[in-house]
Structures are given as structure tokens and as C-alpha cells.
Amino acid sequence: MPKLIFKKRVLPDAGKVSAKLVSVIEVENKFYNPKEQSSDREKQLEWVFEYEEKPGMQIRLWSTFSLSSYKGRKSKALTITEALLNHELTDEEKENFTTDELIGKKCFLTVKHEKKEDGAIFAKVIDFESEA
């Protein structure tokens, strides 16, 4: 007889934490709406960080593929990349950049707990900072 498995949901700790990037993969954007968005929004990047102080505790976040700024505001992918590399990317670096060189690098994440309408609590990364 098959045994059922219970996996308790672990909420990542709130506050400023040191985290290492363990993977970046391309995934389907479950919120993609072809009537309202361009086709480049059909896929997105899933970033997986692991807490340095608590191995195994991970936090996931999603972004577009864009390494750009608009009206002085950097894209999430650019903000994460620059925090991990500890420097601002030049336009030349942005043109040929891949996420492979980011795996294993660390930065500080500021994590906030937020409550949904149904009362469930989720962790949201609100800031990225270089460790150096």
C-alpha cells in the first residue's frame, strides 16, 4: 500500500539575511495574458536562493529577462545581478550576460512577511544588497 507524504510548508525567515543563489531557470509565466502583454512575457526567470545560516531553507522569486532601467528604476533581474556581482553592469556587459556566472554567489536579501486576503502569510523579497 502506498504511503502518503506530508510536506510542511516552511516560511522563510523575515529580515535581512545572507543568501546564496542556487539556481536560475526559465519557467512559464502563470500570469501571462496574451491579450494584455507582449509575447516576451510568456516566460520568466525563477531565482532560487538558499539562506546561508539555514542550509535547506530556500526562497524563490520571479523576474522578467530584462537587464534594463526605466525612468530611473532598475528591473528586478538587473537589481539581483548587480547585488550578486557587487558592481553596476555596463551596457556592454548587459548585452552578452548569462546567469551561469551568478550561481553560488551571495548577497543580502531583505525579506518581508505579508498576509493574503485568506489569512495565509507569504515571504516577499523587498530588497537586494551586495555583501561586500
Shape: globular
Order of helices and strands: EEEEEHHEE
Amount of beta strand: 35-45%
Distance between the termini: 53 Å
Figure out the total of helices: 2
Quaternary structure type: single chain
Q: Based on DSSP secondary structure assignment, what is the total number of beta strands?
A: 7
Describe the structure.
By secondary structure, the chain is mainly β. It has one domain (15-130). The protein is 11% helix and 40% strand. It has helices at residues 76-85, 91-95; strands spanning 15-28, 43-51, 58-63, 69-70, 73-74, 106-115, 121-130.
Keyword list:
single chain; 132 residues; mainly beta; 5-stranded antiparallel beta sheet; two-stranded antiparallel ribbon; 2 helices; 7 strands; 40% strand; globular
SSE blueprint:
Elements: E1 15-28, E2 43-51, E3 58-63, E4 69-70, E5 73-74, H1 76-85, H2 91-95, E6 106-115, E7 121-130
Antiparallel strand pairs: 1-2, 1-6, 2-3, 4-5, 6-7
